[in-house]
Write a structure and sequence with these properties.
Helix 2 (26-40) packs across helix 3. The protein has a domain at 2-74 and 105-149: HUPs (Rossmann fold, 3-Layer(aba) Sandwich). The protein is elongated and about 70 Å long. The protein has helices at 2-9, 26-40, 59-67, 120-126, 136-139, 167-177; strands spanning 15-19, 44-48, 71-81, 84-91, 94-101, 104-108, 131-135. The chain is an alpha/beta fold. The chain has a five-stranded mixed beta sheet with strand order 2-6-3-4-5, covered by helices on one side.
């Protein structure tokens, strides 16, 4: 709820908090959001590109598929022009701009905006703004896990490096031992 109140302090009119007993997977989050999209009928859904916990980068794409909306991923700039959104994203060859028909789903890149901080008066006003609380059951979404983590293993440990006393010794080790030159 703290994050939602912060969003309201930055200008959102109201918030919706969906309570879950367990941490939902990407598909369940997309289904919850799809239900909210169905109820709220937004013109543009802006979503983060990935969560810091699972780091999957799936929810935005799944949401677009479930709702039948066009999507733009990794947006570094979004401009709404009438019934369309121009979404600019970075690709290997430079910048790509997509023209999406609204309503649409856009997942964001860090470059989309400059973070700002809420002012104290706005934080106080946000406490009076409506915050709806819903559950997954109320939205009719099954949160049964569909993915089972079999195991998690740390990456292999690296061997310790060595110090060399001269460039000649370094070249000798690279040539004779590592065989990279």
């Amino acid at each position: 709820q703290e994050q939602i109140r912060n969003a309201m302090a930055l200008g959102a009119d109201r918030g919706i908090h969906v309570e879950c007993e367990s941490f939902p997977e990407s598909l369940q989050v997309a289904k919850l959001l799809a239900k909210l999209v169905e109820l709220e009928q937004p013109g543009l859904v802006i979503i983060g590109k990935q969560a810091i916990d699972s780091d999957n980068n799936q929810t935005g794409q799944m949401l677009a598929a479930l709702t039948g909306m066009p999507q733009g991923t990794f947006a570094s700039e979004v401009v709404v022009e009438g019934e369309h959104a121009l979404v600019t994203r970075e690709v290997d060859g430079g910048l790509q701009t997509l023209k999406l028909t609204l309503p649409a789903v856009v997942s964001t890149d860090l470059r989309l905006n400059e973070p700002r901080y809420a002012k104290l008066p706005d934080i106080m006003k946000a406490k009076r703004k409506p915050l709806d609380v819903k559950t997954a059951d109320e939205l009719g979404v099954d949160l049964t896990p569909r993915v089972t983590t079999l195991k998690v293993t740390p990456p292999p440990t690296r061997e310790a490096g060595i110090k060399v006393n001269s460039v000649e010794e370094l070249l000798s080790k690279l040539r004779d031992e590592a065989k990279v030159i």
